[in-house]
Amino acid sequence: MLIQRKTELTYADVTPKDVYANRRKFLRDLGIAGAAAAIAGERILSIASPNLTAYATSKLNFVKGPFSTDEKITPVNDVTHYNNFYEFGSDKGDPAKNSQNFRTSPWTVSVEGEVKSPRKFSMDELLKLAPLEERIYRHRCVERWSIVVPWIGYSLSSLLKMFEPTPKAKYVAFQSYYDLGQMPQSRYTGLEYPYVEGLRMDEAMHPLALLCVGMYGETLPNQDGAPVRIVVPWKYGYKSIKSIVKIKFQEKEPPTTWNLQASNEYGFYSNVNPNVDHPRWSQATEHRLGELFPRKTVIFNGYADQVASLYNGMDLKKYH
Amino acid sequence: MAVFLVSSIPFVLLCTRLLRNDLGINPVETLQHTTGDWTLRFLIFTLAITPLRKTLNLPELIRFRRMLGLFAFFYVVLHFLTYLGPDQSFNFSGMWDDVAKRKFVTVGFAAFLLLIPLAATSTTGMIRRLGGKRWQSLHRLIYVCAILGVIHYYWLVKSDVRKPLMYAFFVGIFLLWRVWDAYFRRKGKAPATVRPEVSTHTNLPAEKNV
Are A280 and B13 within 8 A, CB to CB? Predict the structure, then answer.
């Protein structure tokens, strides 16, 4: 039997969080940018690139989970300050700035639809539903950037298996929280809200599909989809819906937000595939954050051994 | 000289940020977006000169136009290099493939190509060699470049089109002004006039038709 041990060092032990969250201040305190000229320069630069904002998260207990890659983990600062979370604005830096007061407690996730007994979960219940695992996954955005993230959670199937789906349940639909009052920047982003996504039942039940409550040893920062999201590492990032409030078993293929916005560009399946181009750019290569030159994109984002069989006999160009 | 220094500020700031390793989390994207933004802005500044000069009756503004246009070219060259280098790894066949297949790259690349003859014929010697009239006709290509540049940006964004539309607004205003101006001039009563003797000592062709 494999004895699993909680990691003793956390990411915060390498660089204390208050230091990396305020790294510019840290450098200034060291006197590196001490001169008056530098201060003047700083003021100009701070307009061009606003200071990084801090955020509140707390530590989680977890064990090492399966499927982890040994690729170099993307620095936590990149994953928390380069986000697509259109509810908080369409610039990559917007979510970190605009989501800081987002209220994620109390939080309820409702599981409903074609099941025998629908029910609601509090975050406490979700956190205790199965042992939390750390899984280091590659994450590939449709925009051609990619990251490697140590997510924390458990297989989505652990939750879904608690339910007895009716024979009609063929798909699982997901819905994000939406409140214009808390997300005023969403108004100008050109998408319809609430954000919705969906998976075919076998995709949702696949052990790789993660119900995610944390990353880098801690609970999810708001800008990364707090308090609970899914991570589907073989699909483009927008399938990994954030801040989930509703999970629904249903018969029909659910509508998905980016597909509603531009159906020729974003399909229901959205599997990472270097051979099927986005109409406006090639998907053959990707830009791993932190690297200068692009690298080749791998089919199913490198998870073909696990998931390719789900799509046997399907035309991946047609069902992109 | 002042215009040269001011126009260089975005470039100097970009270099400072590059040296300080302060280009954000995706430095390549920051370089591409910043140089693209400044290209469009300088195209718009260049297009603004004639309308402002005539409506505000400030003929001396013409002295700045060449410098502004050349800075638009300077920023588009940087923009192109950030695409060719970090994005395409200097792989020309990949680049041609991209240009041929993707319409937003096609229009962007076309706008870049069209700016080359304008930059090349920007010297006083070239103006003289071409003759004012032909030079002017050639340089009207900047209208096409600005429109293609805005389309390039509009087609790039995923869903938030506010910034491309803002650029489209300014390009539209300054181009519509020209249509309106030409219409009134044909009717023989120009809405605003410029004393031609002022523009002659700038070594540039008289600007009546631009």
Answer: no
Decide if A247 is inside a domain.
yes
In this structure, the answer to whether residues A18 and A92 fall within a common structural domain is: no
Q: What's the domain count of chain B?
A: 1
- Which of B97, B104, B162 lies at the smallest CB-CB distance from A188? B162
Provide the shortest C-alpha distance from residue B138 to chain A (in Å): 31
How close, in Å, is residue A195 to chain B by CA atoms? 14
Predicted confidence band at A32 (pLDDT cuts at 50, 70, 90)?
very low
Segment A274-278 shows an average pLDDT of 94
Print pLDDT tens along chain B (210 aa).
Answer: 789 999 999 999 999 999 998 899 999 999 999 999 999 999 999 999 999 999 999 999 999 999 999 999 999 999 999 999 888 888 888 889 889 888 999 999 999 999 999 999 999 999 999 998 999 999 999 999 999 999 999 999 988 999 999 999 999 999 999 999 999 888 876 555 554 444 444 445 544 444
In a domain, B58, yes or no: yes
In which region does residue A31 sit, left (phi positive, over 0), alpha (psi from -120 to 50) or beta (all else)? left
Which CATH number goes with the domain that contains A177? 3.90.420.10
Neighbours of B130 (CB within 10 A): 16
Q: Are A127 and A62 in contact (CB under 8 A)?
A: no
* Rounded mean pLDDT, A207-222: 98
The answer, for A270 touching chain B at a CB cutoff of 8 Å, is: no
A75 part of a folded domain? yes
What's the ipTM? Answer: 0.76
Smallest CA-to-CA distance from A298 within A73, A69, A81, A134 is with A69
Specify if A262 maps to a domain: yes
| C-beta of residue A176 within 8 angstroms of C-beta of residue A242 | yes
Question: 3-class DSSP state for residue A4?
Answer: coil
In a domain, B208, yes or no: no
The average pLDDT across A189-199 equals 96
Cα dihedral across residues A38, A43, A45, A50: positive or negative: positive
Give chain A's domain count.
Answer: 2
- A280–B102 CB contact, under 8 Å: yes
What is the pLDDT, as a whole number, of residue A22? 60
Q: Which domain holds residue A47?
A: 12-52
Q: Do residues A179 and A102 both lie within one domain? A: yes
- The tokens for A19 are 């230091």
Residue A135, pLDDT score: 98
CB contact under 8 A, A277 and B17: no
Contact B101 A77 (CB under 8 A): no
Q: Does A49 touch chain B (CB under 8 A)?
A: yes
The CA distance from A204 to the nearest CA of chain B, in Å, is 27
A223 and A108 co-located in one domain: yes
Over residues A67-86, the mean pLDDT reads 97
Separation of alpha carbons A200 and A251, rounded Å: 10
Query: CB distance A277–B101 less than 8 Å?
Result: yes
Taking alpha carbons only, the member of A145, A185, A154 closest to residue A289 is A145
Q: In this structure, is residue B16 part of a structural domain?
A: yes
Write out the residue range of the structural domain in which residue B191 sits: 2-200
Cα B146 → chain centroid: 6
**Cα nearest neighbour of B84 on chain A:** A293
